[in-house]
Amino acid sequence: WIQGVGKTHRISFYYGAANGDASLLAAGPVLALATPEWYTASGAFGPIAPVSKSSLPAVEKMLAAHMRDSVVGRVGLGFENWGDHSSSGYVKGTYLWDNNEYDLPAGAIIHFARTGEADALRLGIASAEHYADVDTIQYSAGHADWAGAAHTHSHGTVGHHTADNPNMHHAGYVQGMILASYFTGDPACLEGAKGIADWALKNLKPESNVGQMERAMGHPLMTLTDVYEATWDDRYLRGAARLVDWATKWEHPVRSGFLAPITEQPAFYSGAPFCGGLLPSALLKFNSWARLPEIDQMLERVARWTLTDMWRPGAGIMSKGGSPRRKADPQDIASHLRLMRHEFLRTEEPLFLILPRESMVAGFGDAAKDMGTRNTELVFNYLPWFLPLLADRGDPQPEPEFEARLKEGELRLTPGGQADVCVSVRNLGVAPAANLRMSFQPRLDFTVTQSPSTPEQLQPGQGTDLCYQVRAPERINLTCDYNRISYAHWTASYRRDGKLRTAHAWMKIALHTAP
Predict the structure, then answer these.
(1) Integer-rounded Cα radius of gyration of the chain
(2) With the C-alpha atoms ordered 511, 512, 513, 515, is the resulting torsion angle positive or negative?
(3) For 212, 261, 342, 420, which has the most beta carbons within 10 A of its beta carbon?
């Protein structure tokens, strides 16, 4: 028995008719369950929809297989580990216990709410109860102030399941515990969530939250907003407001992104998308109450930074730091999808609809690789918010009858230099392309003058050339490929026969020193 570990025993009694089936209790408490339509319509899980209404069946198939095989099928066993999962460690041949990192309980429960898969619900509740007992520090003789906090994921190289101390990187993911309490009526998980929030409140200081990777601020901010919503205790709201204030000062003033070094290796110029979607998601929840226009404006800049600064051909999104061994992965869009949904609904800018959909299909479609259990929560807690947006808009996609072609495949500029980027657009269909919305979006340190001649519609056979003046930043360090090479997007949305359609073309921009 490791110091600080709790274990709660829940006893169920079967009584009544002698010919009943008491084995029903073996799988856990008997729960009266509703349909996915009822759960998703409640709004308690955010703007999600039943899987039956999804417009991306290949993505749904991949999510279902992952939950069934990698999560429910590979749960840890035994007194200490039931409800948790292990994955490969940072040293070859070792493992680590995930300690429900990024909120696997919530991911499993949300999957149940969308699909009706009761095994996912039972796993989610078991994981939440494990989190409240084993992954939460009940007592520490050497660190009394750790009580109520959560252990980080524990490496097999340093000791047992609960070997690692708490920190702000992991002072989060309490939504699953809150949802488990709502399903069972048992207050233990909600009390566990409050304990983590209380520890975060006591330890909020700039050196703990600012200057580290985005999750060091995103996780406690999500924790405080989630627990405030569950308790309406103003202490948590005031703590969240302090973090929001720091976040607004942490945004890069030119290129956006949050100025966060990465623990394992050097960061990009202005933060990195690794776990980067957690902080905007927490800011979204806070601003649903505060309604501050400056936060909305900042979130739009962060969304543009993600899709320009961090985008690479193949619909990939970069992850951690600048190592050449780290490649862009389309699955990395997942944790940013709450933000992308919000920004498209707020601005109707096609960039926020087209590029996330392309990454989703590439990362989670027919050719997708399994994501691994440590990434489960970064997908299941965020991706379902974007799916109803696609379904509600008719799953807009490009069509061959609308031709959009950049006249140059690559733009070369010197710092401070400028050039015109021209796009040839033609309607090859038999019906008009109406309600046209088109824009050219490079990295935010480039200046763009949008074309003044954008037509509102194109009749059948009609075409036009659109030109955008692009100016490069004057002062920039070109010894780094990350600063020197970037990608810009021309995107469009339009309606044909009443249905929303899209178009997308991208361009490489290379900065170089003058000869």
Answers:
(1) 24
(2) negative
(3) 342
Segment 296-313 shows an average pLDDT of 95
- Find where tokens 């999808």 sit: 337
Q: Provide the pLDDT for residue 427.
A: 97
Give ∠ CA 55-56-57 in degrees, rounded to 5: 105
CB atoms closer than 10 angstroms to residue 355: 24
User: Is the pLDDT assigned to residue 368 strictly greater than 80?
Assistant: yes
| Ordered alpha helix ranges (H), 348-465 | 351-364, 376-380, 383-392
Residue 472 confidence (pLDDT): 96
Compute the half-sphere exposure of residue 446: CA atoms within 13 Å on the CB side of its CA.
35
In 246-355, the DSSP E strands lie at 311-312, 316-317
Is 128 strand, coil or helix?
helix
Parallel, antiparallel or unpaired: strands 410-413 and 499-511: parallel
In the numeric block, the tokens 């990350």 are attached to 482
DSSP 242: H
Q: What is the dihedral of CA 127, 128, 134, 140, to 10 degrees?
A: 160
- For residue 507, count other CB atoms closer than 10 A to its CB: 20
Q: What is the pLDDT of residue 39?
A: 97
- What's this model's pTM, rounded to 2 decimal places? 0.94
Separation of alpha carbons 136 and 5, rounded Å = 7
Residues 6+ apart with CB under 8 A from 313: 487, 506
* Lateral strand order in the sheet of 499-511: 410-413, 499-511, 485-496, 434-441
- For the segment 226-243, what is each residue's pLDDT rounded down to a tens digit? 999 999 999 999 999 999
State percent of the chain over pLDDT 90.
Answer: 67
Residue whose C-alpha is closest to residue 211's, from 261, 147, 274, 265: 261
Closest CA to 433 of 408, 400, 406: 400
Closest CA to 436 of 389, 488, 500: 500
- Cβ pair 365, 377 in contact under 8 A: no
Q: Please compute the mean of the pLDDT values over residues 71-95 and round it to a whole number.
A: 87
CA dist 282 and 454 (Å) reads 36
What are the CA-CA distances from residue 367 to residues 237, 331, 515 (Å)? 43, 12, 44
Any bridge partners for residue 375, and if so which? none
What are the residues whose beta carbons fall under 8 Å from the beta carbon of 292, sequence distance 6 or more? Answer: none
